[in-house]
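note to self: dont lose this again. the chain is below, predicted strucutre after it. 151 aa total, dont forget to put it in the shared folder this time
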Amino acid sequence: MEGKVVWHYKLFEELTAKELYQIIQLRNEVFVIEQDCIYQDADGKDFKCGHLWATIEDEVVAYSRIVPKGVSYENEPSIGRVVSSGKHRGLGLGKQLIANSIEVVENRFFTSSIRISAQLYLKAFYESFGFEQVSEAYLEDDIPHIEMLRK
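---
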């Protein structure tokens, strides 16, 4: 039986060393190992962002980076580095993560307009949250992506 899911949100400077380590560990586990993608995860944006994550029994199981406008996109805030642990999939954590991420953006930045770079295979998933495709497909780290906007 799964333990209780607990959600956390902190700005970069508020993160403990352990929290940051667990977040980076999950991002590497999925983006680098599982997706077999060698890329520079530490892109300098984390310092300027908020960090939303879920734990089950002190293990980070889902995460997103809440990006203020002007960091990834000039006119809208963004949600990035969206990830859930492979061993905890099927619990609906991805849906909870996006719903909570949207709520954080709306409450912190007072807007419902959010622009993301989504992996193409997740298009329908993001559309279920009101995102619409606003670009042609492009390759980012050899993975097809599309830009999507929620108004």
